[in-house]
Automatic annotation (TrEMBL):
Gene name, Swiss-Prot/TrEMBL: maf
The reaction(s) this protein catalyses: dTTP + H2O = dTMP + diphosphate + H(+); UTP + H2O = UMP + diphosphate + H(+)
Superkingdom, natural source: Bacteria
GO cellular component term of the entry, any: cytoplasm
Protein's UniProt name: dTTP/UTP pyrophosphatase
NCBIfam families: maf (TIGR00172)
SUPFAM superfamilies per record: ITPase-like (SSF52972)
Pfam families (UniProt xref): Maf (PF02545)
Locations listed in the record: Cytoplasm
Entry EC number(s): 3.6.1.9
Top EC group: hydrolase
Species this protein is from: Pleomorphomonas diazotrophica
Gene Ontology MF: a single term: UTP diphosphatase activity
Length: 209
């Protein structure tokens, strides 16, 4: 569809691109938004996920080269995922100590993953928040040591990626699996369709062929 809206993804995450591909969608432009992800004082996890998704969408929307898409509507999709145990927000693990603390805290416990979605459109911002509950098995010292030695935790919220080695630690999931990976598919499709982006039509057209 030549007149379909332009879709900009405010991220360079290969995981989010791959998840959009599952919807038959290839973003027209990847435009990562650099925002300060530091939680505010006493900020709750769900509020942080919403705030960061909104901020990313707004920052990216201001950077879109509109001259490259004359006469076309532009949609900017952003997401942010926050891992929390109770009210405690777990960091993106950047050091071994970060990862060790996160995995020790998650072991044998239930935690929540919040993904905020924001879609900037010419008529305003559309938003959704998705909550998924997960429970980790109780990890042995050897399991923790082996996982930490893998280095897979680097840059991951909560020190793990469910689609990686740590997926074997997840005893139960209640909610959206794809949200934990980085982009809840059902809610993303719903947001795009509400903004008149032809998700289902692109499946039928073989958009990625």
């Amino acid at each position: 569809m030549t007149n379909r809206p332009v879709l900009v993804l405010a991220s360079a995450s290969p995981r989010r691109v791959a998840l959009l591909n599952q919807l038959g969608i290839a973003p027209d432009l990847l435009l990562p938004a650099d925002v300060d992800e530091t939680p505010g004082r006493a900020e709750l996890p769900r509020r942080l996920a919403r705030r960061l998704a909104r901020a990313k969408a707004e920052v990216a929307a201001h950077r879109v080269p509109l001259q490259d898409y004359p006469g076309r509507e532009v949609l900017v999709l952003a997401a942010d995922t926050v891992v929390a145990v109770g009210r405690r927000i777990l960091p993106k693990a950047e050091t071994f100590a970060d990862a060790e603390a996160c995995i020790a805290l998650l072991s044998g416990r239930t935690h929540r993953v919040f993904t905020g979605l924001a879609l900037a459109t010419p008529s305003g911002l559309r938003e959704k928040l998705v909550e998924t509950r997960l429970r980790f098995k109780r990890l042995s010292s050897q399991e923790m040591a082996d996982y930490l030695a893998s280095g897979e935790w680097q840059g991951k919220a909560g020190g793990y990626a469910i689609q990686g080695f740590a997926g074997a630690f997840v005893a139960s999931v209640s909610g959206s699996y794809s949200s934990v990976v980085g982009l809840p598919l059902h809610e993303t499709a719903s947001l795009l369709e509400a903004a008149r982006y032809p998700v289902r039509a692109r499946w039928l057209d073989g958009a990625l062929a």
